[in-house]
Each structure stands twice: as structure tokens, then as C-alpha cells.
Amino acid sequence: MKSTLLSFILLFTIVSCKKAEENTLGVNSLEMAAPSSEADTETVATAKIKKTVETNTSEIQQKIVKTGNLRFETKDLNDTYNQIIKYTKELGGIIQNDNGGKNDETVYRNLIVRIPSQNFDAFIQNISKGVSYFDHKEIAAEDVTAQYIDIDTRIKAKKTLENRYLELLKKANKVSEILEIEAQLAAIREEIEAKQGQLNYLKNQISLSTINIEFYKPIAHESGATVSYGAKIWNAIKSGFNTFSTFLLSLLSIWPFVLLFGLLGYFIYKRFLKNN
Predict the structure, then answer these.
(1) Contact (CB, 8 A) for 172 and 181
(2) Given this model, what pLDDT does residue 14 score?
(3) Phi, psi for residue 222 in degrees, rounded to 5
(4) Which residue, among 205, 200, 197, 199, has the nearest Cα to 115 in the 3D structure?
(5) How confident is the model over 45-85, as pLDDT tens digits?
(6) Are the CB atoms for 239 and 232 separated by under 8 Å?
(7) Percent of the chain beyond pLDDT 70?
(8) How far apart are CA 268 and CA 260, in angstroms?
(9) Per residue in 13-42, pLDDT tens?
(10) Residue 120's pLDDT band (boundaries 50, 70, 90)?
(11) Residue 94: strand pairing partners
(12) Are 157 and 42 in contact (CB under 8 A)?
């Protein structure tokens, strides 16, 4: 009988201690779960990224960013421009930037064209027709598959962490707990949006290739053999007149010194030379 009573008391004590421990863990779970979950998630995410990049890069479709830089001479600036516009529209592209100008040697035009990547080679071939040679031609293809997977995996890891914090937010009772969890959620959401922006930019560069095109026409200068003799005489007269005008303007700019030296010479003449 005494042994049975002792066993009952021992069992009651163990159950009471276990309930107290559960209550204590329940109170502190919101404070402890979030930091440990974030650390665990980041560790798992890092491992996933390394494993995914190493194993899946060769399995998924490659992500290639294509770019081109072209410079060439043309006989007709407007005709070349119209041809480029035509090929751009036919292949589903857009003109992102269009500017032109003139210097001492050429009249030129610069275009930045965005073309769907699958039509990149066809566009280059089309605008190369009729070009005798390129002053500059650079075609590049950069494989960004690993970078794409890295960013995408990090976004997924952050979203998983965000969901865990949302679950904690539903269970939070204290105002301090709610504010702390919401602050963590805001930071995670900011990181997700930043990574998503990087991914969207990368997707845009992959889907639309960028091609910088500069084409120009040399300015024709008059040569000595084509200028008539009368034109040469007229040019010489204009040159002499311009020289004389420049001389007069120079005299006007130094008239005080001319007047001073004139008075000084007159004084010397009257003082010394005239008496002799």
C-alpha cells in the first residue's frame, strides 16, 4: 500500500513538471523560434544554392545574354536608317535610343536596338547586307545560367522564411512579439523585392538582346583641282580683306599706345632734331 502511494506521488510530480515545462516552452517559442528558424533557413538555402547550381546548370535551358556593337560607313544615311527600322519591326524588336550628329569628318547616327534573342543572328545578317566592311564589329554571348539559378533559389529561400514568420505572427499574442515579427517580415520582404528586381533585369537581358549600331557618311571636302581659277582669286581677295580688317582691329585695340608713342616722337623732334 505504501509502495503504491509512493508511485502515485512520483507519477503526479513528473506530470506536473512536464506540463510546467510545456507552458514555459509555449511562452518562449515565439521569441526563440524566429531567430533559429532564420539561421536554419539561411544555412539550408546556402546548401541548396550550391547543390542546385552544381547539379542543375547543365540540366536546365541555358540562359544567354547576347549583345552586339557595330560601326560601319554608308552611302545613304536615310536609306540605311529605314532598312534598320524595317528589319527591327519584322523581327519583333524595338528602337530603344536614336540620336545623330555631325563632326568635321562625318554625319552619323547612333541606334540602340532591342531584338528578341531568338532573332539576334537573323537581325545581324540582315543589317550586314550591303556593308563593305565594318570599322568595328563585336558580338558577345554571356552564359548567366548559374547567376540566374543563384538569384532564383535565394528568392525561394527568402519566401519560405517569410511564410514561417507569417505563421509565427498568427500565434503571437504580445504586442512586442507582433512588432518584432513584423519588423523581420519587412526586412525579408525588402530583400525579396531587391532580388526579384535583379532577376527581372536578368530575364529582360536574356529575352531581348541589345545591339548598338553606329553608321556614318563622310563629308565631302572641296579639293584644289575642283576649285575654279576665279574662285581662287575671290578667295584670295576675301582673305586679304579679312587680314586687313584684322590689322585695323588690332590698331584700334592698342590706340592709347599709338597716341603715346606719337606724342613722344613729336616731342623728341621738336626738342632735339629741329634745333639742329
Answers:
(1) yes
(2) 46
(3) -70, 130
(4) 205
(5) 555 555 555 555 556 789 999 999 999 999 999 999 999 99
(6) no
(7) 66
(8) 12
(9) 444 444 444 443 333 444 434 445 455 555
(10) very high
(11) 114
(12) yes
155 touches 199 (CB < 8 A): yes
* Closest of 222, 242, 244, 223 to residue 234, by C-alpha: 242
Instruction: Tell me the average pLDDT across 74-99.
Output: 95
pLDDT at 86 over 90: yes
CB 106 within 8 A of CB 219: yes
Poorest-pLDDT segment among 53-62, 129-138, 215-224 = 53-62
Angstrom distance (rounded) from CA 245 to CA 241 = 6
Q: Which of 56, 80, 82, 78 is nearest to 70 (CA)?
A: 80
Measured distance CA(236)–CA(88) in Å, rounded = 51
- What is the C-alpha to C-alpha distance for residues 102 and 80, in angstroms, rounded to an integer? 17
Its sign, for the CA torsion 252, 258, 260, 266, is: negative
**DSSP letter string, the chain:** -HHHHHHHHHHHHHHHHHHHHHHHHHHHHHHHHHHHHHHHHHHHHHHHHHHHHHHHTTTSPP-EEEEEEEEEE-S-HHHHHHHHHHHHHHTT-EEEEEEEEE-SSEEEEEEEEEEEGGGHHHHHHHHHTT-S-EEEEEEEEEE-HHHHHHHHHHHHHHHHHHHHHHHHHHH--SHHHHHHHHHHHHHHHHHHHHHHHHHHHHHHHHHEEEEEEEEEEEPP---GGGS-HHHHHHHHHHHHHHHHHHHHHHHHHTHHHHHHHHHHHHHHIIIIITT-
* Residue among 25, 130, 136 nearest 76 (CA): 130
Cβ pair 38, 184 in contact under 8 A: yes
